[in-house]
Amino acid sequence: xxxxxxxxxxxxxxxxxxxxxxxxxxxxxxxxxxxxxxxxxxxxxxxxxxxxxxxxxxxxxxxxxxxxxxxxxxxxxxxxxxxxxxxxxxxxxxxxxxxxxxxxxxxxxxxxxxxxxxxxxxxxxxxxxxxxxxxxxxxxxxxxxxxxxxxxxxxxxxxxxxxxxxxxxxxxxxxxxxxxxxxxxxxxxxxxxxxxxxxxxxxxxxxxxxxxxxxxxxxxxxxxxxxxxxxxxxxxxxxxxxxxxxxxxxxxxxxxxxxxxxxxxxxxxxxxxxxxxxxxxxxxxxxxxxxxxxxxxxxxxxxxxxxxxxxxxxxxxxxxxxxxxxxxxxxxxxxxxxxxxxxxxxxxxxxxxxxxxxxxxxxxxxxxxxxxxxxxxxxxxxxxxxxxxxxxxxxxxxxxxxxxxxxxxxxxxxxxxxxxxxxxxxxxxxxxxxxxxxxxxxxxxxxxxxxxxxxxxxxxxxxxxxxxxxxxxxxxxxxxxxxxxxxxxxxxxxxxxxx
Length: 499
Hints:
This protein has 499 residues and is α/β, with parallel strands linked by helices. Helix content is 38%, strand content 17%.
């Protein structure tokens, strides 16, 4: 069954888990060569749908099972009357098992196989059947040179299973990596297709389960869950006797001089996502503007922790960090948070101050770092965070004993129990200031309405990303405040206020 990104399965696997699935399917009675043939047919169907008028195909084949897929695709194209050439990067006579059988079938079909040479002209649609999921270290020559030539050719590229040079587990680049226009992946979705550099390398994604027995697939647990409308937590409908006290009071703390808008964005998002009451504690200079923009928010100017005592006593949820700054004012207000035994969202400079050892993290927290903040929290580089985002998410959750939402392409949510969820929604137009402040406010509102930190993180990031995806269709210039109304609409569609 072939599927495109809007109907993909929700279970994500590591490369090792997919190999286990493959082995279990073979043990259950489907031969490895049959699975390889099904994969080739799925890729060939996807190629023809994407490029229906293609007359020429060049397959670049390595020396493993990924190459076997490529040889069988070449045989199918040859029999369909296309001009086909296989450029063998790995020596065909060294192929073994099913891959050798695939090479023999391509030979029997009359496919022309020639050794790869840097001087070879790449023509037609290129089929990347070089490396597959087995590679772990950096791509070496001659494969690195082949990948560079493919990317520089400007020819359309279909990647078989995943782009060569992309880590199936992390989405990091193993040196050189193919930039595909279409990726056809099989049996189980790999985590690396959706996070790190994966989204920038796979192009359009098509999944085919190769007619796998669902009972066999269920024997292998997921590495992560892909967030979708069907597996998100839901807010219960509101009874007729509902009142504002039923849905929590969210206290937003932030907005130092020059960054007052960040805290107000978080407060407005919390209000629009159903928090019963929202209070904004910010610099006195921002109170007038805040009341003009959103009079429903109870806005209080604070200069010190003394003024915060009554506010924190009434709060059910704390969101701290948007626009907080790292000056004495922000550090002073943050020092109150560990004394508040309520669910909390820590964002922005609250995370930077946590990383600097300025404060201890209380229980029942959700951290929402971007890669730079995550790097400071773990004491490593941003490159190390991006090289293995799943591991970084788990490390943060374990170190701080909390839920973590690691932002970026393929946002990840993890918790201290080892759960991992991934959001593959969103749009490049969301690369704009203030969107993280909105996300923090949405999460705060969901905490106030009874979700736990992990659930609130999953639901808030999906709402936020789906809203950005919808608004991104209008192109550049997306402002953070634009998201709030759309998030509210999506929340109502998913969890209606009334039965």
